[in-house]
């Protein structure tokens, strides 16, 4: 236990594993020119039914086994996959076609596993190496404070005052939006005050927080929401009296959701694991420190080969769970690893800590989105991993377009 605590402190404090053959220069964030995505045309689509069942595990989604067999996508195929759906709070939906400008094709990375052994399906491999972050000093400060919880049961990460990055399958199963995503909410961590953090009963501020900041006096829907909110406050008060200092959530409604067409196939084909990411825009800005996006470096450029992420695993209710592990394999779009993670942590932001050029300080950036468990065909043998979707230059450009629109601020990443 003492050894595990040592390693937790080691990584939280930001030490970097560098052996004698590696220098600081090998582990820096390098600003690079990225392709530009430009919105070409937007179409109105029929409203989704929001009837899909949320699935916290992905099975047989096309991953690296397809990449090894299929030719590299053409520019038009990339533009089709990077076109995107937007679903709004009122249930309406659009499809935006995009054009890619300034694309420089890079070599495709193939899986490097030389041997393959069959494993039974699991998400915790051997000894459970996850850490529940319970200390308020860590929980309410960067980087742990950037983790959020989705009302559909997933996790996400703050990447701007109004935006959350998560996995696409947390809100969409590839063919339709999941149940509950029409009134999607995002929970930001906060600590209960002494005595359970109970607010004055019936206060206007309390009702706004419980209703995602959207209070409409007199409507039947609002009356029901207020009744539910009252029951939640009452239950929270009971829990708080015996669990002072436990974390709770401040819930905020989502204004709109963006999903790449590579994932939202609408029944026309299988969703591609490479595009399992989504961006949520909040109805109101938060005041927390967020984590910036970064372009995923290759495996050789990861300090110690390690990645980190935090999320709300279902087997540890309302606890923020942190983990780190080494990456086993990579493709052009995916990172394959054995970070211990249960359902609920999907959608977490995977991050690194690298040094900024010409500066003395080190900075954490998000370089992938944790997607979940996946079976992979390696030389005809089934092998399982926990998989993260990398932030490639094209995906960086797309997410930047979603956040900022068509402008030059997305030219470098």
From TrEMBL:
Region (Disordered): 192-248
Peptidase S1 domain mapped to chain residues: 140-197
Location(s), subcellular: Secreted
Secretion signal, residue range per the UniProt entry: 1-20
Keyword list, A-Z: Disulfide bond, Glycoprotein, Hydrolase, Protease, Secreted, Serine protease homolog, Signal
Chief place of localization: secreted
One GO MF term attached to the UniProt entry: peptidase activity
PROSITE patterns in the record: TRYPSIN_HIS (PS00134)
Gene Ontology BP terms: proteolysis
Bias (Basic and acidic residues) ranges: 207-228
Cross-referenced InterPro entries: Glutamyl_endopeptidase, Peptidase_S1_PA, Peptidase_S1_PA_chymotrypsin, Trypsin_dom, TRYPSIN_HIS
Residue stretches of biased makeup (Basic residues): 192-206
Family membership: Belongs to the peptidase S1 family.
PANTHER family given in the database record: INACTIVE SERINE PROTEASE 35, SERINE PROTEASE
Name of the protein described by the UniProt record: Inactive serine protease 35
Gene name for this UniProt entry: LOC101408709
């Amino acid at each position: 236990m003492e050894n595990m605590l040592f390693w937790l402190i080691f990584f939280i404090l930001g030490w970097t594993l560098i052996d004698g053959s590696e220098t600081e220069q090998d582990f820096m964030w390098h600003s690079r020119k990225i392709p530009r995505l430009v919105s070409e045309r937007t179409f109105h689509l029929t409203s989704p039914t929001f009837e899909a069942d949320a699935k916290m595990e992905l099975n047989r989604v096309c991953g690296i086994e397809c990449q090894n067999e299929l030719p590299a996508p053409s520019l038009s195929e990339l533009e089709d996959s990077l076109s995107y759906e937007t679903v709004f709070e009122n249930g309406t939906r659009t499809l935006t076609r995009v054009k890619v400008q300034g694309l420089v094709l890079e070599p495709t990375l193939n899986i490097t596993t030389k041997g393959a052994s069959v494993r039974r399906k699991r998400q915790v491999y051997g000894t459970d190496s996850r850490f529940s972050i319970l200390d308020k000093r860590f929980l309410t400060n960067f980087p742990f404070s950037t983790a959020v919880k989705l009302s559909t049961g997933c996790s996400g990460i703050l990447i701007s005052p109004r935006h959350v990055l998560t996995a696409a399958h947390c809100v969409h199963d590839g063919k339709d939006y999941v149940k509950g995503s029409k009134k999607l909410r995002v929970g930001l961590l906060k600590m209960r005050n002494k005595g359970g953090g109970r607010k004055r009963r019936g206060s206007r501020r309390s009702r706004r927080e419980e209703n995602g900041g959207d209070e409409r006096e007199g409507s039947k829907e609002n009356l029901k929401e207020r009744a539910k909110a009252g029951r939640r406050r009452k239950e929270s008060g009971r829990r708080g009296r015996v669990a002072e200092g436990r974390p709770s959530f401040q819930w905020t409604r989502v204004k709109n959701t963006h999903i790449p067409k590579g994932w939202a196939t609408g029944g026309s084909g299988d969703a591609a694991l490479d595009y399992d990411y989504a961006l949520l825009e909040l109805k109101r800005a938060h005041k927390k420190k967020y984590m910036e996006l970064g372009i995923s470096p290759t495996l050789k450029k990861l300090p110690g080969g390690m990645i980190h992420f935090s999320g709300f695993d279902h087997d540890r209710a309302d606890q923020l769970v942190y983990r780190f592990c080494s990456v086993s394999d990579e493709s052009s779009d995916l990172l394959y690893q054995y970070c211990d993670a249960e359902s609920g942590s999907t959608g977490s932001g995977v991050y690194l800590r690298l040094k900024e050029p010409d500066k003395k300080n080190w900075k954490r950036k998000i370089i992938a989105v944790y997607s979940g468990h996946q079976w992979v065909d390696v030389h005809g043998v089934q092998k399982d991993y926990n998989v993260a979707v990398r932030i490639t230059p094209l995906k960086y450009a797309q997410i930047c377009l979603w956040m900022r629109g068509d402008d030059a601020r997305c030219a470098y990443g």
